[in-house]
Prior knowledge:
The complex is a heterodimer.
Chain A lengths: L1 H18 L5 E2 H11 L6 H36 L7 H25 L4 H59 L3 H29 L4 H32 L6
Helix pairs in contact in A: 1-3, 1-4, 2-3, 3-4, 3-5, 4-5, 5-6, 5-7, 6-7
Chain B lengths: L1 H9 L6 H13 L8 H25 L18 H19 L9 H9 L1 H5 L21 E2 L1 H8 L2
Helix pairs in contact in B: 5-7
Amino acid sequence: xxxxxxxxxxxxxxxxxxxxxxxxxxxxxxxxxxxxxxxxxxxxxxxxxxxxxxxxxxxxxxxxxxxxxxxxxxxxxxxxxxxxxxxxxxxxxxxxxxxxxxxxxxxxxxxxxxxxxxxxxxxxxxxxxxxxxxxxxxxxxxxxxxxxxxxxxxxxxxxxxxxxxxxxxxxxxxxxxxxxxxxxxxxxxxxxxxxxxxxxxxxxxxxxxxxxxxxxxxxxxxxxxxxxxxxxxxxxxxxxxxxxxxxx
Amino acid sequence: xxxxxxxxxxxxxxxxxxxxxxxxxxxxxxxxxxxxxxxxxxxxxxxxxxxxxxxxxxxxxxxxxxxxxxxxxxxxxxxxxxxxxxxxxxxxxxxxxxxxxxxxxxxxxxxxxxxxxxxxxxxxxxxxxxxxxxxxxxxxxxxxxxxxxxxxxxxxx
Lengths: 248, 157
């Protein structure tokens, strides 16, 4: 179900990619429009005709470039590796990218029949839509990418936690050590806190919470994980003094 | 006849209790000498070798000789400071990455608007600047590029 939606989400994106738009928008393109407005050699009608043509051409190119950005985001999203439990997040974002492509196509169709005022209105509409929809969507994808990379860090940390538990159990079988127990307890608590934050961040992504909130949760999980690693360092130093080992 | 009587009395002769005890101890103290054979010699050599090997293995284990081995009851790699440091460094890098705010979609209309209003200045490459909006600035307007939102902002004017 999710994979079907994911594939459908990219059908339009793929079509946009086929367009192969050159997305270098030069400041000189914008300056050329201003130059027409201030050219004293042009009559009023010539000025209007040339300015309209220039605005339509540039606006069409800019909207096509917006579609290209969606294509690139789709490719980036497709490359993100997430656990199966979080794959629905990927599908939801792909669906939103598909919506973005549809929106840009609709706006692009309006350009051909617009006058100068119309092109300004379309530009404003697309700009506002980008701010309200595309920018947060791009941030959501960036957050998912960031979170997916954290997944590997948490897997490694979980292994370290398990190994540390085993070593402490081994040492405790020879004799109780309250300092060791205390350090292990602190490490476990901080690691569990980081893991909980990591899972909360995943839920925030799944529920499409504002990207800033999701990012804050992801950053908090990383900060907690860094604290857990300080604990690992502390308990390792203690273990080194208790365990005869050549693991230097 | 007296001879027969005398022989019958010999049957009643017995050692004293003290002599019996001493004799018993002396007999038990003697180690019986086994007959020498090649088979028995090899057996003794092997027996001694195994005993020495077991003692050596015990000392090896006690001294942490199995650390890092799959035979070890615990995985000592968990307390390797280098791997711990590497993992902690990876987290620090990720924290820094997370601080890099996604900014491609954010707008910085300043450069585009300035170019629209002052094409000469834009041509001189003095009005447009590169910021979080995604515009790349160079020494000339023709090579100054705008982000989508910057261009849209300019086209609203």
